[in-house]
Write the structure tokens for this entry.
Amino acid sequence: MPRPRPPPQPRPSCLPRARARRRSSSGGGRSRLSAPPRRAPAGAT
């Protein structure tokens, strides 16, 4: 007898990351703080 699937639990750690990636393409500010911009060199900031 297969066990019933548990209710989908919200993952706060995954949601912000997915949103940050989408915002980064349109110019997100938070993505720059968490990860350095790829276009600009790390020494510039």
